[in-house]
Design a protein that fits this description.
Blueprint (H helix, E strand, L loop, with lengths): L18 H25 L3 E8 L5 H8 L8 E5 L5 H4 L5 H4 L8 E5 L4 H8 L5 H22 L1 E9 L2 H13 L9 H7 L2 H14 L5 E5 L3 H17 L11
Parallel strand pairs: 1-3, 1-4, 2-3, 4-5
Helix pairs in contact: 1-10, 2-10, 5-9
């Protein structure tokens, strides 16, 4: 796999993509995703894990709300990972992750994930390169365990937002009363470490790529949501899932 260099990847949609045409397609794509989720749930043969990573204000929350609002809530769960609690820190770093792995028939969305433990921890020098390497091996083994032993289909999305758009969205949290609850002064501190975060992510993409990453241009919400939704639909269709017949 060729090395991913994030500063070489655009954060906006290709110029041949028309915003209004794409937005017009989204309802049908969401309808397809709803149907695929219904079959997934009924058949209970596969499970789906969706990993969302990205800088602060990359749009993870909005994507979850808009892409998955049409699916049956009985068949989907969302887990957001914050700073580890004292209990979580007293266990291995994957303990808090593994207990939220999806059961067969379920879609599980991780808003941030196990990758925080090789991204944030490296940027802030909480672990060294040797420990990061060991953790990446553990992550690869963990994801292989899910895919090989629980028929888990894993999707890994990195939401790639530009520095300018990130700053604009963080500023919006100060002035927009509907978003002020998201405001955290520390987010501006973290945004100043952009180069360090990009380097950590690129190393992550290099060493945790047995399941490929999809780099999602995230400056435009309509394109970000389209790309994630169509990627999920196309992959789930290939499973050729079927509704079970009458039980005898």
């Amino acid at each position: 796999m060729a090395e991913i260099k994030l500063d070489k990847i655009d954060t906006r949609a290709p110029k041949n993509f028309d915003k209004e045409k794409i937005k017009a397609k989204l309802p049908e794509i969401y309808k397809q995703l709803d149907e695929l989720q219904n079959v997934l749930y009924a058949q209970s043969k596969y499970s789906v894990l969706i990993v969302l990573q990205g800088m602060d204000a990359a749009g993870k929350d909005g994507l979850i709300k808009n892409v998955f609002s049409s699916v049956n809530p009985q068949g989907i769960m969302v887990q957001s990972y914050k700073v580890p609690t004292a209990e979580e820190l007293s266990h291995d770093f994957l303990w808090r992750i593994h207990k939220h792995a999806p059961a067969k028939g379920m879609i599980q969305v991780f808003n941030r994930s196990h990758y925080e433990d090789i991204i944030v921890t490296r940027v802030h020098k909480m672990i060294d390169d040797e420990m990061a390497s060991k953790r990446m091996k553990a992550i690869n083994d963990f994801e292989e365990l899910l895919t090989e032993h629980n028929n888990t289909i894993i999707f890994k999305f990195y939401l790639h937002v530009s520095a300018e758009e990130q700053h604009s969205r963080l500023e919006e949290r100060i002035h927009d009363v509907t978003k002020q609850w998201k405001y955290n002064e520390q987010d501006f501190v973290e945004s100043a470490l952009r180069k360090e975060y990009l380097k950590a992510y690129e190393d992550c993409f290099k060493h945790c790529n047995k399941i490929k990453w999809t780099i999602v241009p995230a400056d435009q919400n309509w394109y970000k949501e389209y790309l994630v939704a169509i990627t999920l639909c196309d992959a789930l269709k290939k499973l050729n899932m079927q509704y079970p017949g009458i039980k005898k």
